[in-house]
Structures are given as C-alpha cells and as structure tokens.
C-alpha cells in the first residue's frame, strides 16, 4: 500500500512584512519513483500555489533545487521519497540569502566567491582566432573535467561547519575551483599567486576538515582529496617562501 | 562568504599557513608524547620495578626535568593555536551545535568531541602535570598511593578517556586535513582511530587497576 507522506515545509516570504517564519504541513500519497521535485510540484499544483522552490533541469545538472532534506543538504530532483521516512522536513539551505520558502539566492554568493578566487584562466597569451586550439593531454583533460563537474548547488557550503560559523570562509567549492585552475596548464598563475588567494584562514587554512562537503556532494566530487592536496601545496609554498632569501 | 565592499587591499601574509603547520606539528608531537607516556605508565603492569627503572632513567638523563616543562609549553601552544578554530562566541556555538544535530554527521560530531575534550584536558592536564612535575621523582609507589586516595582515581577516570579520545580523533583529523588519508582509505583510517582509542583506554584502565592494587 502506498505510504501517506507528511511534509513539514519551511515557509517565509521576506518580501512580505506580514509574513513570519513558520512550518506548514502537507500530506501526499506516495507514488512510484516519486522524487522530492515531483512531490513539491504536486503540493504546489494541488494544495498551495504560493509555495516557492527552485528547480530547472530535473536531472541533477543545474544545481538549482538544493534544499535541506531532513537536516541534510541534497538535490530535490535526485532524492526519491522511498529513501526517506514517512515524515519529511524541508528547509532552505542556510548561509545563502533567502528568497522565499525553500528558494535561496546562490547566485550572488557564487559570483562573489568566483571574483574572490579569480575563477578564470590567467594568461598573457593573446587570443588568435585563426590558430588551432591548444592541445591538452587527454588524461589531464579528464582530471580537470572531474573537478569541472561541480553544479554549484551549494550543498557543500550548507554542510560545512566552518562556513556556517564564519561567513568569510570560501568553502570547498572555491578550493575545488582553485584546484581545477592549478591543474590547467593554460593558467599561468604561480603557486605563490594561488597562495595569496587561498593561503589564508578564509581559504584552505580555515578548513577544519569536518568533511561535510565530501559527504553531501550530490556529484561526488573528490573534495576530501582536493582539500588535502591543496593544504599540502599551500603549506609547502609558505615554507619555501620562508627559506627563499631573495624575493 | 561575506561580500567584500572595502576598497583597501590586504597585504598578503603567510601567517595562517605557519600557524596551521604549528598546530599540526605540536599535535603530532603531543600524540607521540602521549604514546611514550602510555609506555612509561603501563610499564607498571610488568612490575613496579620496571616503571621505577624507566622513571629513574628519565630523571637521570634530565628528560623528565627538562622534557616535562617543554611538553607543558607545547601543550599550551597547541591549545592557543587550535583555539583559533574553536567557537567561543555564543552565536557560533549555537550554529555548530544546531548544524551537527541536523546533519547527524560523524566527522562533525568528532570535531565537537575534540573541542569539548580539549577544554577539559586543558584544565585537568595542567593539574596533572603540575602535580607530577612538582613531586619528582616519579615512583610507582607514589603514584599508587595517589590513586588509592580515591580523589585521583576519579580524576584519572575522567582524564584518561578525554585524552585518548582527543589523541585518537586528532590523529585521524591530521590524516584527513593534510591529505594522508584519501577518499578510498578514509574508512580504514577511521577504523584504525577507533581501535587505537579503545586499546589505549583499555590499557589505561588496566593500569589504573594495577595502581589501585599495588601495595605501597
């Protein structure tokens, strides 16, 4: 027999002065292969048209539908209700600015983070549209692609103890981004330059290694490995600079 | 992450890196010390004479008189360095507590245990070091007399698990943070840490019982 699911959903519209944060309860008959994305749409269509939540691709590619599912960050479209108990509590991601109900603005945060870590290929080469694209070893391209798979959903930031306590901490997503450019032979930044961006307590040395990021990433990016590599690289970079007498 | 609206540029500094190195290195030094410490103390299980001989050797070579205060300094330095990450503000404490309860995530809990045990060890460890180092030489009979007094038995029954938890979790967290443990072997490291903690607590308890039964 199909289960009757109970949804506790956080409701608050910061735009509306009469709105106050509270939880609304909805009930739904569980259907086969029901994802939270399907459930939320059904609730909005049949029970409350004012319910706000984000979605776009429905296939775990766009990263828009990240929410706190029974206390853990995850993608609504990737989470099937049969993996969850009968009572499901949905909250918006912490840290990011609340737009309304389950919808948060990850864009502003990511934009600011990308500007901070200068998330683009730094090169002095002038672009010549008539020459062939530079070649890259396939294995390296795949390694870079592995880190490029990030969908910017914000789950790693939401699950990070450090990011939750300290709003200046850039989070695993930023370290992953820097790690990606470090691998890229087209980026001409030196370790010292990377160090200036990420070798601080707001960057890699602020990371306390709680690994919430690693354990919730819906794309299973190798965040633990990248954080470890980055801490060592940046640590050595500092030691090398200490023993370099000519600057 | 806060959106930066200031116009000044902060001068690059390597301080964070050095402090993080020091935090790790003092941690490693204390882990190694605690293991050696356990060998010295647990040697009483082989006989009071064995422990006395070991202690005598350490005092004859001035390792206890000089090494003791050095360890005390490393201990305090490690606390000051690690305290950079400890939430002392109430809003931070509330946030991390709520997040841990929501996430029910082992590693986040492990870190909380690390923070709580740190505070207890800071006080009890200092008391322990003062008591032992101001009452040299270390002798099995003296230690036994203290334990048999009752107060110190309770004291060490609390301090022992605190230290072993902190050492075990610290070992695992250094491995994870500095990339010695990778995704594929993280479970192995964690299991190792659990066994290590359990074994050391057991040895510690056996040693306490031995002191309790030692004729003074």
Describe the structure.
The complex is a heterodimer of chains A (247) and B (216). Chain A has 2 domains: 4-104, Ubiquitin-like (UB roll) (Roll), CATH 3.10.20; 117-242, Alpha-helical ferredoxin (Fumarate Reductase Iron-sulfur Protein, Chain B, domain 2, Orthogonal Bundle), CATH 1.10.1060. Helices cover 36% and strands 15% of the residues of chain A. Chain A has helices at residues 36-46, 106-116, 138-148, 155-158, 161-165, 171-183, 191-198, 212-216, 223-242, and strands at residues 4-11, 22-29, 66-69, 72-75, 87-91, 97-100, 103-105. In chain A, strand 3 (66-69) and strand 4 form a beta hairpin. Chain B has a single domain (19-213), classed as Up-down Bundle (3 helical TM bundles of succinate and fumarate reductases), CATH 1.20.1300.10. Chain B contains 8 helices and no strands. Chain B has helices at residues 15-42, 48-60, 63-82, 90-103, 106-133, 140-148, 151-177, 186-213. Classes of the chains: A alpha+beta (247), B mainly alpha (216). The interface between A and B is large, with 54 and 39 residues.
Measured between the Cα atoms of the first and last residue of chain A, the distance is 73 Å
Q: CATH topology of chain B, what is it called? A: 3 helical TM bundles of succinate and fumarate reductases
Low-confidence runs of at least 5 consecutive residues of chain A = none
Overall geometric form of chain A: elongated
Q: Largest chain interface and its two residue counts?
A: A-B, 54 and 39 residues
Number of helices of chain B: 8
Unreliable spans of chain B are none
Order of helices and strands of chain B: HHHHHHHH
Please state the overall shape of chain B, judged from the principal axes of the Cα atoms.
Answer: globular
The CATH homologous superfamily name of chain B equals Fumarate reductase/succinate dehydrogenase, transmembrane subunit
What radius of gyration of chain A results from the CA coordinates? Answer: 21 Å
Instruction: Tell me what the CATH architecture of the largest domain in chain A is.
Output: Orthogonal Bundle
Backbone structural class of chain A: alpha+beta
What kind of assembly state do the chains in view correspond to?
A: heterodimer
Calculate Rg of chain B over CA atoms: 20 Å
Average pLDDT taken over every residue of chain B? 88
Gross CATH architecture of chain B: Up-down Bundle
Counted by DSSP, the helix tally of chain A is: 9
């Amino acid at each position: 027999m199909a289960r009757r699911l109970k949804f506790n959903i956080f409701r608050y519209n910061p735009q509306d002065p009469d709105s106050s944060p509270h939880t609304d309860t909805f009930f739904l008959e569980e259907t086969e292969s029901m994802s939270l994305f399907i459930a939320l749409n059904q609730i909005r269509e049949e029970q409350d048209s004012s319910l706000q939540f984000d979605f776009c691709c429905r296939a775990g590619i766009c990263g828009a539908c990240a929410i706190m599912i029974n206390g853990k960050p995850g993608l609504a479209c990737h989470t099937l209700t049969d993996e969850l108990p009968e009572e499901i509590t949905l909250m918006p991601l912490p840290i990011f600015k609340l737009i309304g109900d389950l919808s948060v603005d990850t864009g502003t945060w990511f934009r600011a983070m990308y500007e901070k870590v200068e998330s683009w290929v730094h090169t002095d080469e002038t672009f010549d549209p008539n020459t062939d694209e530079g070649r890259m070893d396939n294995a390296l391209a795949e390694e870079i692609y592995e880190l490029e798979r990030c969908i910017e959903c914000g789950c790693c930031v939401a699950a990070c103890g450090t990011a939750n306590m300290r709003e200046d901490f850039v989070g695993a997503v930023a370290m992953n981004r820097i790690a990606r450019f470090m691998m890229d032979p087209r980026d001409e930044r030196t370790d010292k330059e990377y160090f200036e961006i990420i070798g601080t307590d707001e960057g890699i040395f602020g990371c306390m290694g709680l690994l919430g990021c690693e354990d919730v990433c819906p794309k299973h990016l190798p965040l633990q490995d990248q954080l470890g590599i980055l801490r060592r690289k940046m640590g050595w970079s500092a030691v090398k600079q200490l023993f370099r007498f000519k600057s | 992450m806060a959106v930066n609206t200031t116009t000044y540029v902060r001068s690059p500094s390597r301080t964070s890196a050095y402090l993080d190195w020091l935090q790790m290195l003092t941690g490693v030094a204390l882990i190694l010390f605690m293991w050696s410490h356990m060998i010295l103390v647990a040697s009483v299980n082989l006989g009071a004479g064995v422990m006395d001989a070991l202690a005598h050797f350490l005092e004859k070579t001035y390792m206890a008189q000089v090494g003791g205060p050095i360890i005390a300094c490393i201990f305090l330095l490690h606390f000051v360095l690690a305290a950079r990450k400890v939430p002392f503000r109430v809003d931070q404490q509330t946030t991390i507590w709520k997040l841990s309860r929501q996430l029910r995530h082992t590693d986040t809990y492990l870190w909380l245990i690390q923070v709580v045990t740190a505070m207890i060890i800071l006080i009890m460890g200092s008391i322990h070091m003062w008591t032992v180092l101001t009452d040299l030489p270390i002798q099995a009979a003296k230690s036994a007399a203290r334990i048999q007094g009752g107060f110190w038995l309770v004291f060490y029954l609390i301090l022992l698990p605190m230290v072993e938890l902190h050492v075990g979790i610290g070992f695992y967290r250094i491995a994870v943070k500095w990339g010695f443990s990778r995704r594929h072997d993280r479970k192995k490291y964690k299991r190792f840490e659990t066994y290590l903690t359990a074994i050391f607590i057991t040895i510690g308890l056996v040693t306490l019982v031995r002191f309790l039964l030692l004729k003074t």
